[in-house]
Specification:
alpha/beta; about 350 residues; TIM Barrel; about 40% helix; globular; 11 strands
């Protein structure tokens, strides 16, 4: 087992707390507040381009001198299928009609994967954030070496031992053990492969026992007691996402925040219907649509997300927030609205080791 202290030194943080990147929810202000409070603040740049990532890093640095984690998506580029996409549009057409809106005529690939985004790589090598984290898989060996040569610490998400071993073989510095409880996009390398759906604590213990790299536990952890439990299993830190969604600095809209305080928090759902990849969301109108839909019917990520976002925009225009990507893990009922720095302070005070 790798010493937990080694991970804190590697990440250059005081407390074993990582704020999950959460593209579209986390902000540079949130990341800075977390880093200033002793944890690792994170931003997700999978939903923006290189110029957007550069601006976000600059905004963080205006607020903090602490470590910053920049998360990139490493999914296989989408395979367009006009027939499948047309069927998906038709499936959603009644929902658009209910809102007095017209669905898009066609769907497009709205995000570029880091595996082919040379401009994003150039920004990261130039800006040298303390940490870069991979989600959905790995980029090429050349990209990994370029980031390492820039002095950047690399993290990678694994949902099983095979993925974790692939990360280690690629020379990633630490592994994020993402349990099935986790909110947001499941980090599986292949969304069409069988998923063992390992829970956070079982997965964490397996990876701690099998790997020669530090492990960060992620999924369902909302308070200091949860962090303590992860550390007792050998994790060097815990990554929390849903815990930060209701923070003041979050980009979560009013409908998302209201849903997080509602009964929906007790009924999170793993679905492809929102984006095209498995992801855990609060139960809402869009997850209900996807309940009886075969995975093969949903367009590839992020093409499928183009439809979900259009439906959400149409809904918000009518005051209906139930079509949003309201990502949340199974610990959602434990959410506590407050500034991010106060949440980190609360987590640290609740930990027996702090």
């Amino acid at each position: 087992m790798v010493s937990p202290k080694k991970l804190l030194e590697l990440l250059r943080i005081e407390a074993p707390i990582v704020q999950a990147p959460m593209a579209g929810v986390s902000t540079p202000a949130m990341a800075a507040a977390v880093s200033n409070a002793g944890g690792l603040g994170s931003i997700g740049v999978g939903a923006t381009d290189a110029a957007g990532a550069s601006r976000m890093i600059a905004e963080f640095r205006e607020r903090s001198r602490g470590s910053l984690n920049v998360n990139v998506f490493c999914h296989a580029p989408a395979r367009a299928d006009a027939a499948r996409e047309a069927r998906w549009i038709e499936r959603l057409r009644p929902e658009f009609a209910r809102l007095g809106a017209t669905p898009p005529a066609a769907l497009r690939e709205i995000y570029r994967s880091f595996v082919e985004d040379d401009d994003m790589l150039a920004v990261l090598v130039r800006e040298k954030p303390a940490v870069v984290a991979f989600h959905f898989g790995l980029p090429s060996r050349e990209r990994i070496e370029a980031l390492h040569d820039a002095g950047i610490v690399l993290l990678g998400t694994a949902t099983n031992l095979a993925e974790a071993r692939a990360l280690v073989a690629a020379d990633v510095d630490a592994v994020v053990a993402q349990g099935y409880e986790a909110g947001g996009h499941r980090g599986v390398f292949d969304p069409d492969a069988d998923d063992d759906r390992l829970g956070t604590f079982a997965l964490t213990r397996v990876l701690v026992s099998e790997l020669d790299r530090p492990v960060i536990a992620a999924g369902g952890i909302m308070d200091g007691a949860g962090i303590d439990a992860a550390l007792r299993l050998g994790a060097g830190a815990a990554q929390l996402g849903t815990a930060f969604v209701a923070c003041d600095e979050s980009q979560a809209d009013a409908g998302y925040r209201a849903a997080l305080k509602s009964d929906a928090a007790h009924h999170t759902v793993m679905t492809r219907a929102i984006s095209g990849r498995p992801a855990r969301s609060l139960a809402n109108r869009l997850t209900a649509i996807g309940r009886d839909v075969a995975a093969s019917e949903v367009p590839d990520y992020p093409i499928g997300y183009d439809a979900g976002k259009a439906l959400h925009v149409a809904g918000k225009a009518k005051g209906e927030y139930g079509y949003g990507a309201q990502w949340a893990g199974q610990g959602a009922p434990l959410s506590r609205p407050m500034p991010a720095a106060d949440l980190v302070a609360a987590l640290r005070s609740e930990m027996s080791s702090q």
